[in-house]
Amino acid sequence: VAVCLAIERIAGKQPRIKWVNDLYLGDQKICGILTEAVTNFETGAIESVVVGIGVNFRGNASLLPEELRTKAGFLLPDETVSITRNQLAAEIMNQLCSLCDTMETRSFLPEYRRRSMTLGEKIRFLRNNQWFEATAIDIDQNGGLIVTRTDGTRETLNSGEISIRRLETS
Prior knowledge:
By secondary structure, the protein is of the alpha+beta class. The protein contains 3 helices and 11 strands, in the order H-E-E-E-E-E-E-H-H-E-E-E-E-E. The protein has helices at 2-11, 85-100, 109-115, and strands spanning 16-18, 22-25, 28-39, 46-55, 58-59, 76-77, 122-127, 130-139, 145-149, 154-157, 162-164. The strands form 3 sheets. The protein has a 5-stranded antiparallel sheet with strand order 10-9-8-7-11, with no helix packed on it. The chain has a 4-stranded antiparallel sheet with strand order 1-2-3-4, with no helix packed on it. The protein has a two-stranded parallel ribbon with strand order 5-6. A hairpin with a 3-residue loop joins strand 1 and strand 2. 18% of the residues are buried.
């Protein structure tokens, strides 16, 4: 959510979130985010969080390997604008610091849901070396993806990769 807000403020674009931490403009991934929490072994409390954010800032898709040209994109493809990487990085930090204050209350979750490109979509996910198809129906209070499998089983995914299976239109 923080990176989405920063991109909107600096570049005027509205990326969508693919659960859990990828950002897309249209059908192209422009950002990946990795997080790692350090917890206190005795209390279980989070002591610190390391966040890695990779934004495809500016570039030309024709220079990407052929297999990535339709999947990966750029925040500013071939655009002549005065936005700098430093401006975007500073705004991301500002937004992250603002949202850190809402971690306990989870008040950012409605905004996460609103920006989700996953909710309501048919997805595939891997569990115990087996692929399952499901529909993404909600995000729980801990950021887990609540899904209903094709057999009606409801479960919550807490980590892993999903693929969105858009229905073919005739």
